[in-house]
Amino acid sequence: MSFESDESSTAGASGSGGSLGMRWPELLMAAFMLAIAVLVIIDSRRVGTGWGDDGPKSGYFPFYIGLLLALSSGWILLSQLRRWSRDTEVFAEHAQLRLVMAIFIPMVVYVAMIFGIGIYFASALLIGYFMLRYGRYRLAITLPVAIGVPLFFYVVFERWFLVMLPKGPIESLLGL
Fold first, then answer.
1. Taking the mean position of all CA atoms in its chain, how far away is CA 101?
2. Spans in the chain with pLDDT lower than 70
């Protein structure tokens, strides 16, 4: 599967460097939503979609939401396949995709780091990275914010609301 741009979609595009057409993003998103809908339908059937003595079973409403999601995503999927050769609309320019990836990749790394070092230190690193890299803040401003925000959320969630968030080995060493 290739996400190559089509000459027809780049012909009218402003700027150089090419673009990504609407075909693949629309097709993949519709297929993804259809898969989620099937998962919702299957799980709703597992817990019951009918009526019990005291009203609808717990899968009743999710089942119909899943059906609506399946119908709408299936419709989008089929209509995209029908107009595949005629679709020349541009989804995004490559420069725009690079900007999205500049945010998306650090977020994926952040989520992975939560499981390794815990949410508080991962959050401090993410905030610090974005402040230094994109905000171009000095270290004297970045450090208090990058440390202060996770500390604030620690106090709010873990101390006030008693909601435990994922911790890593560093928090365990500190007794948090």
1. 12
2. 1-17
